[in-house]
């Protein structure tokens, strides 16, 4: 439900702001939370107000605890490094006047952070930006590498758990709720052929050979801010999905999204394939910052992360198609099937380049 100016100002009055504010205006193009820039009496943007989507992030206490823990940890690491201008290098969230990390108005949950001045973001991906993204997310993971397991909760449970996604897939096959199973039988067979090999990370974790790390889980180039003057990365933003998981997630999701020569829902499959310069640039930047904490097994598995996350999204799109399009927004009756086919084509391209990608990783082993 949209809020009036007066209602937004009343919400802002609950927070411990240092300057009087006069308005809040829509800001950015996020798909999950509603974000507004907050204007002070002198016409400057000093704060960012967000309405938390509690339909997706159902445990707001956990969500805000995660974010407070992560930002405090990063701030401490930056101070130990002797960094300057730290308020522009890590997000700062402000408490309410009664010391809470969010405000509930009876309808929605709200939080406020400091606006980071002289910053910008990018939407387009190039090898140069991919290298910077790799460095930023690698450094982000490095600063959080020694957070003890169990400190953070899963803001979206089983988000990148392949065994869980396959269970959902098999339930959708069994139910065949939309009567579409026969139409997609060949795709189902292709997914089943790969199922065992795509559950490696969960098995290695149970065997004690792979540990959980703190991951961002949404590694897009527009989830970082750059200095408007120097074009250097300032900080990683959009921290709602920061949670425990495996390092394969953060490199895998970037390869799946940014490293695709086509669109996620491209109907022309000839356009879809892996962009090797993007993969190499991101990986080079990531390893420059993250190699210090990665194990040899994790390094070897990083290219597999791209195949895993692409396979996972193939499974999720096809699951939704079988269920009758109950999860993802669609723009046509076959949209989830189109997405499935495009993701599967990318997966096939990644498989074709697997040996080349593995060879590229050998320089860090």
Structural class: alpha+beta
Oligomeric organization of the protein chains = single chain
Report the total helices.
11
Mean pLDDT: 94
Question: What does the overall shape look like?
Answer: globular
Helical residues, percent? 40-55%
> Count of DSSP E strands?
11
The succession of helices and strands, N to C, reads: HEEEHEEEEHHHHEEEEHHHHH
| Unreliably modeled segments | none
Give me the Rg, rounded: 21 Å
| Beta-strand fraction estimate | 5-15%
The biggest beta sheet is recorded as: 6 strands, antiparallel
Q: Termini separation (Å)?
A: 53 Å
Question: Any descriptors?
Answer:
about 375 residues, alpha+beta, six-stranded antiparallel beta sheet, three-stranded antiparallel beta sheet, 11 helices
Ordered list of secondary-structure elements with their pairings:
Elements: H1 5-12, E1 21-26, E2 34-40, E3 45-52, H2 60-81, E4 93-94, E5 103-104, E6 109-114, E7 119-120, H3 127-143, H4 162-175, H5 185-194, H6 200-206, E8 213-215, E9 224-227, E10 233-236, E11 243-245, H7 248-258, H8 276-290, H9 296-323, H10 335-352, H11 354-361
Antiparallel strand pairs: 1-2, 2-3, 3-6, 4-6, 5-6, 7-9, 8-11, 9-10
Helix pairs in contact: 3-8, 4-9, 7-8, 7-9, 9-10, 9-11
């Amino acid at each position: 439900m949209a809020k009036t100016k007066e209602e937004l100002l009343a919400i802002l009055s609950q927070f411990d702001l240092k300057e009087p504010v006069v308005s809040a205006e829509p800001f950015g193009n996020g798909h999950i939370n509603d974000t507004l820039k907050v204007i002070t009496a002198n016409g400057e943007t000093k704060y960012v107000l967000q309405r938390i989507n509690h339909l997706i992030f159902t445990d707001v206490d956990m969500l805000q605890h995660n974010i407070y823990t992560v930002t405090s940890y990063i701030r401490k690491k930056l101070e130990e490094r002797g960094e300057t201008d730290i308020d522009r290098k890590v997000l700062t969230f402000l408490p309410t006047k009664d010391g809470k990390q969010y405000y509930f108005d009876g309808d929605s949950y709200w939080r406020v952070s400091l606006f980071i001045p002289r910053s910008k973001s990018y939407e387009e991906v190039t090898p140069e930006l991919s290298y910077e993204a790799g460095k930023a997310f690698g450094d982000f993971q490095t600063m959080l590498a020694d957070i003890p397991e169990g400190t953070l909760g899963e803001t979206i449970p089983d988000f990148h758990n392949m065994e869980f996604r396959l269970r959902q897939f098999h339930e959708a096959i069994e139910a065949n709720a939309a009567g579409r199973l026969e139409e997609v039988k060949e795709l189902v067979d292709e997914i089943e052929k790969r199922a065992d090999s795509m559950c490696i990370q969960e098995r290695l974790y149970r065997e004690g050979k792979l540990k959980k790390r703190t991951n961002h889980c949404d590694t897009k180039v527009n989830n970082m801010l750059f200095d408007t003057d120097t074009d250097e990365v300032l900080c990683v933003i959009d921290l709602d999905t920061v949670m425990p998981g495996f390092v394969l997630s953060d490199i895998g999701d970037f390869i799946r999204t940014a490293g695709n020569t086509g669109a996620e829902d491209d109907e022309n499959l000839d356009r879809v394939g892996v962009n090797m310069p993007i993969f190499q640039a991101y990986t080079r930047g990531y390893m420059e910052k993250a190699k210090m904490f990665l194990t040899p097994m994790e390094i070897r598995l990083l290219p597999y992360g791209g195949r895993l996350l692409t396979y996972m999204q193939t499974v999720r799109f096809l699951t939704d198609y079988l269920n009758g399009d109950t999860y993802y927004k669609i723009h046509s009756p076959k949209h989830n099937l189109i997405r499935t086919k495009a993701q599967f084509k990318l997966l096939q391209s990644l498989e074709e380049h697997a040996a080349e990608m593995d060879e590229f990783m050998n320089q860090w082993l």
